Amino acid sequence: MKKFVVIGLGKFGASVSASLFELGCEVLAIDRNKDKVELIMDRVTQAVRLDATDEVAVKQLDLSGFDGAVVAMGENIAGSIFVTLLMKEIGLPMIVAKASNNLQAKVLSKVGADRVVFPEKDMGTRIAKSLVFPGILDYLDLSPEYMIIGVRATKDMDGKSLADMDFRNRYGVNVLLVRKGEEINATPRGSDIINAGDFMIIIGKRKQIETFRKEME
Amino acid sequence: MKKFVVIGLGKFGASVSASLFELGCEVLAIDRNKDKVELIMDRVTQAVRLDATDEVAVKQLDLSGFDGAVVAMGENIAGSIFVTLLMKEIGLPMIVAKASNNLQAKVLSKVGADRVVFPEKDMGTRIAKSLVFPGILDYLDLSPEYMIIGVRATKDMDGKSLADMDFRNRYGVNVLLVRKGEEINATPRGSDIINAGDFMIIIGKRKQIETFRKEME
Ligand SMILES: Nc1ncnc2c1ncn2[C@@H]1O[C@H](COP(=O)(O)OP(=O)(O)OP(=O)(O)O)[C@@H](O)[C@H]1O
Ligand SMILES: Nc1ncnc2c1ncn2[C@@H]1O[C@H](COP(=O)(O)OP(=O)(O)OP(=O)(O)O)[C@@H](O)[C@H]1O
After folding, report:
1. Domain covering A133-216 in this structure, CATH number
2. Which of A15, A128, A186 is nearest residue B125 as measured by Cβ atoms?
3. Which of these CATH numbers, 3.30.365.10, 3.40.630.10, 3.40.50.2300, 3.40.50.720, describes A3-121?
4. What confidence tens digit (pLDDT) does each residue in B1-59 have?
5. Domain B3-118 carries which CATH code?
6. Which of B17, B121, B174 has the CB atom closest to A186's CB atom?
């Protein structure tokens, strides 16, 4: 069972804490604000009110057996840098830190963060893409060149077979999977018939996916 | 070319604005804080300093031709509810609103938000999963029952063929794709040899993916 410490219980820190706990981990949640500590205490192993920049108090917690730390102290930029450094000194093997801006992100990496995250910025990009490409339900960036997208079959596709639509030759993209309602077909064949509303997972180079998507509108 | 208005230029709103603009859309970015407006003005079509709860001023902007609105006013909970309602009255066809908590989310939906987002909460869940399942590089939730994951082949797998490893019978999961460096194979066969570090896209029911993943550790 993995053990994690989460410092800073804003929206992001609280979510990481509760999610880790739900996934079966031991979670020590820390915040200097008593209300934040009380809000999370039923959803983690242990919640402690503490100023994480108080080095003596933090070292008394004995975090040496922990698998990782998440530093989510939001607007307390100097504090998050200092606490990240402290987690590195204590020897935490994995440190994730939330950053508010690029400059802070660089410093966090320098002082020991293994991974720096920008929740609002990343979600902003995802939302923008979903607004511009409404047919795309989700996507996986496979590499700088390839991506996988999930799309719903349109009315024009209703009743046609994959061979009829010939995506491979028309757009250079491959259909990896088709889901009809709850039924999943992970080995789609040319003879398979597509109906409007079916969910398809498609892979291709970005430009190809882009062309495919434009034609779908 | 699509047109969007983004109200509230915190980290999330600024990211949505800049991303939409980079994707080729016309973007009107609004904030009551002059500094926020100046920070974004080179990265959007037009940036306006305005209190979005000033109904008269907002209606003078003539947003009727726009494709959607993103309401990202962060901690101004009452304001974000009011502005969402205003966008609905004006007739914006797609309204995305950022919420800080579930109660606010319910109200936002009631007053017209087509989609309510929780950037920090969603990212918190993603980060938690990446900490607990470090082998899983990314994932797509296909349905309540199925998921697709991206994983790196481990040293034990080095030099074995997909038939040797027989994931389908051992775990009930299918390998959809194998990427070796830049080369992508979207139609993997039993005879294909896997090397440590190869990237594989695997689909299966959640329990099956979970079992597979545990064995990989
Ligand atoms: N020195 C500290 N010790 C412990 N907790 C701290 C310290 N400094 C800040 N925090 C806590 O970090 C939490 C997150 O900070 P804040 O609310 O500024 O961030 P935020 O950017 O709004 O966060 P989020 O985006 O996660 O909601 C707060 O609950 C705050 O009390
Ligand atoms: N009535 C209003 N009219 C225009 N802008 C507003 C109004 N109320 C708040 N805003 C703007 O919304 C922006 C986002 O708000 P705030 O910084 O409270 O949110 P946040 O939760 O920290 O945002 P984020 O998570 O996106 O960084 C601020 O720049 C603020 O000036």
Report:
1. 3.30.70.1450
2. A15
3. 3.40.50.720
4. 899 999 999 999 999 999 999 999 999 999 999 999 999 999 999 999 999 999 999 99
5. 3.40.50.720
6. B174
Nearest CA owner, ligand 2 atom 16: B74
To the nearest whole Å, the CA of B131 is away from the closest chain A CA by 8
Answer positive or negative: Cα dihedral of B80, B117, B130, A138: negative
Amino acid at residue number A34: K
Residues having CB closer than 6 A to ligand 2 are: A 120; B 7-13, 30-33, 36, 51-53, 72-76, 79
Lowest-pLDDT choice from A159-173, A174-188, B6-20, B191-205: A174-188
Task: Say if residues A12 and A19 touch (Cβ distance below 8 Å).
Answer: no
For every residue of chain A, DSSP letters joined together read --EEEEE--SHHHHHHHHHHHHTT-EEEEEES-HHHHHHHGGGSSEEEE--TT-HHHHHHT--TT-SEEEE--TT-HHHHHHHHHHHHHHT-S-EEEE-SSHHHHHHHHHTT-SEEE-HHHHHHHHHHHHHH-TTEEEEEE-SSSEEEEEEE--GGGTTEEHHHH-HHHHHS-EEEEEEETTEEESS--TTPEE-TT-EEEEEEEHHHHHHHHHHH-
Domain definitions of chain A by residue range: 3-121, 133-216
**What is the mean predicted confidence (pLDDT) over A65-79?**
95
Give the count of beta carbons closer than 10 Å to the beta carbon of residue A172.
Answer: 14
Ligand 1 contacts (CB < 6 A) are: A 7-13, 30-33, 36, 51-53, 72-76, 79; B 120
- Name which CATH class applies to B130-216: alpha beta
Mean pLDDT of the A25-51 span: 98
Question: Residues with Cβ < 8 Å from B148, sequence gap 6 or more?
Answer: A140, A148, A177, A201, B139, B140, B142, B176, B201, B202, B203
Contact B112, B46 (CB under 8 A): no
Nearest in space to A153 (alpha carbons), one of A188, A194, A104: A194
pLDDT computed for residue B80 by the predictor: 98
Could you tell me which of B210, B202, B197 has the C-alpha nearest to residue B159?
Answer: B197
